[in-house]
Specification:
Layout: H1 4-8, E1 12-14, E2 39-47, E3 50-57, H2 62-79, H3 87-94, E4 96-98, H4 101-116, H5 126-132, H6 144-151, E5 160-161, E6 166-168, H7 181-195, E7 201-205, E8 208-212, E9 221-226, E10 235-241, E11 244-250, E12 255-258, E13 261-264, E14 279-286, H8 289-313, E15 318-323, E16 327-330, E17 338-340, E18 346-350
Parallel strand pairs: 16-18
Antiparallel strand pairs: 1-18, 2-3, 3-7, 4-6, 5-6, 7-8, 8-11, 9-10, 10-17, 11-14, 12-13, 14-15, 15-16
The protein binds adenosine-5'-diphosphate and magnesium ion.
């Protein structure tokens, strides 16, 4: 089992002929955004700790942008841990609370992904996460005993989902929805656009992309997958999306270095330490951004083999995995929708 290729022999098929390099027109920014000259973008910073950018065509009224930002802000007000008065902070403080239907449903969804990922995705990782961060910064290597102690408070099965939207936690447990709430807020913002008659737009929420409809010319949106090698820039491949979320999790997004080791913000709930595998990033494509967000975190923790196996077992999800050997693995449903643009990477299809 030590050798990845032993596990994967027979699973992988190389498809060099389908891809060609250098076809993308944009020089910078998200390739999806380069595709229409009359696109207008508006950004709002500070919602769930990152920037939400909505790009839509010329005639979208200002009030529509404002309502979308406000819808995302409502999610922040409920679920942010950076706000002591958010519903989630109050639940964590008191150990039990009747919450809004939105928070209840999202925690329930999170529990489902904990089950599917056999605990790789677990929102009760909050107690350990808290040891790793001071305020909103991610700058502290906690002593091993502290991590061991906090690990006793991890385990989604200990959350009680009761009637009347009541959630009860065991003493000391902390729920952290950081791995799913941004995706959810992205869905809410996309829904707000739809309800106001906007049929073509692209949302970028700190790496969670949502492609609403198609571009003005009827072509799909081109969404770039970022080069996840630490210190690298640019995009390595492009996925053509329409009415789909494309969400990436990677250790390159938030991290710090100490004693020559790089520590990032996606924890393995079994060890309490940053997840370690050959993966540099995991990207999930699905109809809903919340689901893709949970699964991208889950797959990043699970690693290439288990993550790909999980995706292949689910309907409606595809994945793109990038390894530290500059390999891109994509799930079988993606086919020709993926285009390699950095030829220093090799690309493989996962097949069962
Ligand atoms: P990002 O928020 O950078 O896009 P993710 O979606 O992968 O990346 O979410 C990472 C966040 O999720 C962390 O900042 C933390 O709040 C939370 N988290 C970390 N590890 C886990 C995990 N194993 N399961 C669930 N949530 C996690
Ligand atoms: Mg996530």
């Amino acid at each position: 089992m030590g050798c990845r290729y032993c596990v994967w022999k027979g699973w992988l098929r190389m498809l060099p002929a389908i891809f060609s390099a250098g076809l993308i027109a944009s020089g910078c920014g998200n390739p999806g955004l380069s595709a229409g000259s009359s696109l207008n973008s508006q950004s709002r910073a500070g919602i769930l700790g990152t920037v939400l950018t909505i790009s839509s065509y010329g005639d979208t009224p200002q009030s529509v942008y404002d309502e979308c930002f406000s819808a995302a802000q409502d999610v922040e007000n409920l679920m942010s841990l950076n706000r002591p008065d958010s519903e989630l902070s109050r639940l964590n403080q008191s150990g039990e609370l009747s919450v809004s239907g939105q928070t209840y449903a999202l925690v329930q969804k999170a529990l489902e992904y904990s089950r599917l990922s056999e605990g790789a995705f677990d929102v009760t990782v909050g107690a350990v996460m808290q040891r790793w961060r001071i305020g909103a910064d991610f700058i502290r290597l906690p002593p091993r005993e502290e991590i061991q102690g906090a690990l006793l408070l991890v385990g989604s099965e200990k959350i009680k989902m009761e009637q009347n939207n009541r959630i009860a936690l065991e003493k000391g447990m902390l729920i952290d929805l950081g791995g799913i709430a941004k995706g959810y807020a992205c869905d809410i913002a996309a829904q707000a656009l739809r309800e106001r008659g906007v049929q073509r737009a692209i949302l970028d929420y700190g790496g969670n992309i949502y492609a609403l409809g198609e571009k003005a010319d009827g072509e799909k949106w081109r969404v770039g997958i970022r080069n996840p090698v630490l210190g690298a820039d640019g995009y390595i491949c492009v996925y053509e999306a329409s009415d789909q979320a494309v969400v990436t999790s990677g250790g390159y997004e938030r991290n710090f270095e100490q004693g020559g080791v790089t520590y990032h913000h996606i924890l393995d709930p079994k060890t309490g330490y940053p997840a370690q595998s050959s993966l540099l990033s995991a990207t999930i494509i699905s109809k809903l951004s919340a689901d893709a967000d949970a699964l991208s975190t889950a797959c990043f923790v699970m690693g290439l083999e288990r993550g790909a196996e999980l995706l292949e077992s689910l309907d409606g999800f595809e994945g793109i995995f990038v390894t530290d050997a500059k390999e891109i693995f994509f799930t079988s449903g993606l086919g020709g929708a993926l285009e390699l643009i950095d030829s220093s990477f090799s690309i493989f299809e996962v097949s069962q």
